[in-house]
Amino acid sequence: SPLPPRMAAATMCGAGPAGSARLGEDLPPPGPDVGPTPPRRSGRRPASSPALQLPCDDAAIAALLSPRKLALDCGGASAGGVEATKLLKASFGSLSDNRAALDLTGPFKDAERAVLLDSETRHVLAAAVVHVRAGSVLEVPLFATAKKFRGQGFGSALYAALAGLGRRLGLQTLVVSATDESRAFWVRQGLHAKTFCGAAEKSAMSSLEQRGLVTSFQNTTLMAAPIPQGLEPPPLALDQRDRDRLPGLKARAAASTHCYEDINDKGSFWVAADGSRQWRAPYPADEMLTGVDPNVKWVPYKELEAFFAGPTRGWGLRCTRDIKDTEFVVEIVGRCLSFEEYEQLEDKTYAVGFPENISEAKRAAGDRLQYIDPKTEGGLWRFINDSEEAPNLRLVYIPRFEKPSAKNPDGVLPKRAFLQAAHDIPAGVELTWDYGPAYPRPWKEAEASEAGGQALRVDEGGRRAAAKWASAEPGRSVSSPTPADVGAAERCRGEASTRGGTGEGRVSGGAD
After folding, report:
1. Structure letter (DSSP) for residue 6
2. Who is most buried in 5, 228, 269, 443, counting CB within 10 A?
3. 175, 205, 232 — which closes off a domain?
4. Are 243 and 155 within 8 A, CB to CB?
5. What ranges does the record list as Gly residues composition bias (predicted)?
6. DSSP code of residue 379
């Protein structure tokens, strides 16, 4: 088995509706009584203005949006009205002292707004500021989806429309300024930060930065992707009420279904020579979070739930309420292991270790705690998937690590680890963390591999592919575990209790 991920090694620190067109196809504009109504343009500047003129009368864009009762409004700073201005301003707090991007003045005098509207109510669903740079790059310095319409596919629809317009203009690369909260969205659209970009996109970003032609606001990350040469309409999004009804498993049900014991309320433990468990709690004062910060805020454990995130990601974890920046979400709990005990494990899949610098300091000090294994005893944290590029959680160690020094010859060695919100996280968003650079990510080299004769695809953000959930019947749509799957888990649990005698069966937790 490959070595487990090092905790905090880095930062720890489909086809559209019948008859719909592909974006950018050279289609004639619809006649007066045929085809969808083309997007409108508002707030345009005088003809003498050198501003970008988005080809919003593209018939394919109209064909993309009209079946979904959406419309695109393009033009100057008044496009979308006050509602669009408030949306963009609220989403980028750093713009309070620089209205140029909102007013399309100064360095943005040649830019335009693109606003996605509900074609019936005319409500602003999403908005963006777009700019052509260096004759080949479509820059999107501002992009926001209205809060009450998030999670319903409108941001993806506006992105698809912008990419299609970029293609019609003959552009090659799309560059955005992503906030911490939106990075995961852009990764899903195929954009990546410079470190993770392809050679062409990386070169384009470097050239723009060197020439001062790209805008990066405070607390944003530049991300890029090639403009697709063939775009299908975005998939229809689930209605929010349907999304809320997707099945989730609370702690007790998750542990029962996935054959492990939830010990979140007990903490981690050692296994003694006689097989008994020696609990580390109650913890000494220096290992308590309140000893570090008396104002620690916790997400109630009952608000967390495991859910099936699809066949490419397997099971994941989400919260049923909003999580605020810096709130503590969950503790890393499980069986404590020394290096020797870790080496004796038959299945090292779940075990995680400390970063190398901490691990070395622990070995030098004779500290046995090197790994934590949640395979058979753990908590909901075992469902949290990896996201190397856009994690919304980070690891915090208690007590905080300090190297030995003249002032403190023994240093300070961490004994516990917690996952903390890296920024505000809306309810229902999948929770992710970065497993670190040592974690193998074979999907970077190959988009698919075979597992037991079944297609197995793992994307960035997926810790393990759910091969066991892959369709057993040709053409079966996989969206959630079936009663047969749950029945298999019940049998798994029954066999475990028979073998173990205590009901704590030490069996695999499945594709979590």
Report:
1. B
2. 5
3. 232
4. no
5. 500-512
6. -
Task: Identify which of 382, 383, 342, 384 has the alpha carbon closest to the alpha carbon of residue 359.
Answer: 342
The pLDDT confidence band at residue 93, using thresholds 50, 70 and 90, is low
Contact 44, 113 (CB under 8 A): no
Q: Is the dihedral angle over the CA atoms 67, 68, 74, 80 positive or is it negative? A: positive
Q: Which residues pair with 178 in a beta bridge?
A: 221
Which helix H or strand E contains 492, and what residues bound it? helix 483-500
Question: Which pLDDT score, from 0 to 100, does residue 444 have?
Answer: 60
The tens digit of pLDDT for each residue in 27-86 reads: 233 333 333 444 444 544 433 333 456 666 677 777 778 888 898 988 888 899 999 998
Q: pLDDT tens digits, residue range 308-361?
A: 887 778 899 999 999 999 999 999 999 999 999 999 999 888 888 888 899 999
First-last CA distance in the chain = 17
pLDDT for the residue numbered 439: 78
Whether this model's pTM surpasses 0.85 = no
How many other β-carbons are positioned within 10 Å of the β-carbon of residue 141? 25
Domain around 358: 241-500
DSSP state of 425: B
Residue 477 lies in a domain: yes
Same-domain check for residues 143 and 262: no
Residue 269 belongs to a domain with what CATH number? 2.170.270.10
**Nearest to residue 4, comparing CAs of 342, 488, 312, 384?**
342
CA–CA gap between residue 90 and residue 95 (Å, rounded): 9
Number of domains in the chain: 2
Single out the residue of 259, 257, 282 nearest to residue 269, CA to CA: 282
SS3 content of the chain, % helix, strand, coil (to 5): 25, 25, 50
Domain boundary among 179, 211, 232: 232
Considering only CA atoms, which of 105, 99, 124 is closest in space to residue 114? 124
DSSP assignment string, 188-232: HTT-EEGGGS-HHHHHHHHHHHHTT-S---TTEEEEEEEPPSS-P
> Are residues 206 and 289 part of one domain?
no
| 121 belongs to a structural domain | yes
In contact, 142 and 32? CB cutoff 8 Å: no
**Predicted confidence (pLDDT) at residue 18 exceeds the cutoff of 70:** no
